[in-house]
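During the reporting period the student researcher (J.K.) took over the structure-prediction task from the postdoctoral fellow and processed the backlog of single-chain submissions. One of the processed entries is reproduced below for the supervisory committee.
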Amino acid sequence: PCRSVLTVACEQTEVLLFDPISSKHIKTLSEAHEDCVNNIRFLDNRLFATCSDDTTIALWDLRKLNTKVCTLHGHTSWVKNIEYDTNTRLLVTSGFDGNVIIWDTNRCTEDGCPHKKFFHTRFLMRMRLTPDCSKMLISTSSGYLLILHDLDLNKSLEVGSYPILRARRTTSNSDITSSGSSGPRAVGSPGHQNDSGPLTEKHMSRSSQREGGSPRNSLEVLTPEVPGERDRGNCITSLQLHPKGWATLLRCSSNTDDQEWTCVYEFQEGTPVRPASPRCSLQLTHCIEEANVGRGYIKELCFSPDGRMISSPHGFGIRLLGFDAHCSELVDCLPKKASPLKEIRSLYSHNDVVLTTKFSPTHCQIASGCLSGRVSLYQPKF
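J.K. obtained the following structure tokens:
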């Protein structure tokens, strides 16, 4: 948030800090964790959080980087995502143990923060909050996208306590049912802990419904439409939100790793006539096939701060993509059916597969990082 520091999460326990304007290296946190560092999230102008395959989350203060503020223990497997609700000051993390955990940073001490398990699902890959924190989106390696509507982070969700708004493919009328799959890439239901059957509307808790609208934390389960993947299934490896909350951005790969797509889905807002009536919150608006270089590796993409462009890893570089050739707003170029994203610019400076990319929130600057550890900064001119 201070815009003056570029932080880099590294595979070998390190966190690197740079001045993004001068590209000067500021500091290396050589033993930030005991395993790979996966994600970094700033909570304010000085505090930031890191998470790792060592199953922990660490809080840091830019003014005192020689030691951690505290270490948070609660996950039992690799921790992959950190989100933060600035209104409630609640930290939200997710990991490959399938858990979404809430941490109360209002009561943080050197021994940690009070925490609680908020949600659980099998094959969890990524978790994001919308900019207004009204929704939580969770992607899975089995091709499902879970959306919690009208989010209340103060209420833990036990199995069967959340109402199901719908469970189906975004372009189909058939409901999702459980499957007996056991592999992490198999196509089956998200399989919430202790589930014994299909996700159906029988789980609707009437007592949790609010007059005149859907209940808090209503769960919607979707299998987003992906071009060319109707019969083969896919893995949703990367998940991002439009900065204005208009859409979600997914990177999907086929179960056989022979195709990779970047897809944009617009949120279809509006409350169903009945809380248990069919609902479909996402519509595929734009997509593009990716190079599929570096099969098996997750590539993290992002929106620009104004939401007009997408930066997407593409082989040994990145592609800047737009909804049209003029980088118009999404709302100004919504097609009647899914249309290709337009390539605005390609930037190549790496000698290995690019795995992540990020726009500066304040400058015309983009950072990218590759598998061999090189970080590149671009200042593209249009």
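The committee noted the following: Residues 163 and 204 are 4 Å apart (CA to CA).
J.K. will present the remaining backlog at the next meeting.
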